[in-house]
Design the sequence.
C-alpha cells in the first residue's frame, strides 16, 4: 500500500488486539475507588435491600436461591458495585439472548443503584462492564427495557448512548408459584 502524498510504501497496520476475556477487575482499583466485581450468593441480603428500594420486595432467601442458580449459567452475568467501605451500592443482571428474529444479543434484565449513590457513575460503570462482557461474546448489541414508571432512568440510558426503540405493553400469566 502506498501513501497518497509521498508515494512511498506504508507499513501494514497491526491487527487489532483481541478483546480480553471478561474480568471486571482488569485494572487495579484506585485507593478509595468503587470496584465492580462478580456477584456472590453471600451478597443476597444487600441485593434484596436494593431491590426493595426500587419497589421489588423480595426475601433474601429467594434472592440467594436465584443467585446460586444463575451464577452457574454462563449466559448470565451478575455484577455488584462496591464502595470503598465494601458496601454494595448497586447491582446489574444481564443475559445473552438468542432470538429467532433478532439473533444473539445481550439484554440488561435488572439494574439497581442505591438512592444515595445515584448520579455518581455507579450505573454507568455497571453498564460499561456489561457492554465489555457482551462485546467479548460477539453479541450484536445490548438492549434494556426501562419501565415507564421510572422516568428518571430514561435520560440515564440516553446519556450513555442508548436510543429508545419502542414503547410496549408487557403481559404476564402466572402458571405456578416459583420453586
Sequence:
Amino acid at each position: 500500500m502506498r501513501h497518497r502524498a509521498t508515494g512511498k510504501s506504508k507499513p501494514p497496520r497491526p491487527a487489532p488486539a483481541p478483546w480480553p476475556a471478561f474480568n471486571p477487575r482488569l485494572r487495579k482499583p484506585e485507593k478509595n475507588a468503587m470496584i465492580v466485581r462478580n456477584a456472590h450468593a453471600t451478597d443476597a441480603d444487600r441485593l434484596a435491600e436494593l431491590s426493595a428500594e426500587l419497589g421489588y420486595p423480595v426475601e433474601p432467601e429467594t434472592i440467594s436461591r436465584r443467585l446460586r442458580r444463575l451464577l452457574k449459567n454462563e449466559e448470565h452475568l451478575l455484577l455488584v458495585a462496591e464502595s470503598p467501605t465494601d458496601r454494595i451500592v448497586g447491582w446489574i443482571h444481564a443475559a445473552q439472548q438468542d432470538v429467532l428474529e433478532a439473533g444473539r444479543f445481550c439484554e440488561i434484565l435488572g439494574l439497581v443503584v442505591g438512592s444515595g449513590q445515584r448520579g455518581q457513575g455507579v450505573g454507568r460503570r455497571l453498564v460499561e462492564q456489561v457492554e465489555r462482557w457482551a462485546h467479548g461474546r460477539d453479541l450484536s448489541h445490548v438492549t434494556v427495557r426501562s419501565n415507564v414508571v421510572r422516568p428518571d432512568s430514561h435520560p440515564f440510558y440516553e446519556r450513555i448512548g442508548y436510543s429508545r426503540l419502542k414503547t410496549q405493553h408487557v403481559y404476564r400469566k402466572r402458571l405456578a408459584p416459583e420453586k
About this structure: Residues 94 and 108 are 4 Å apart (CA to CA).
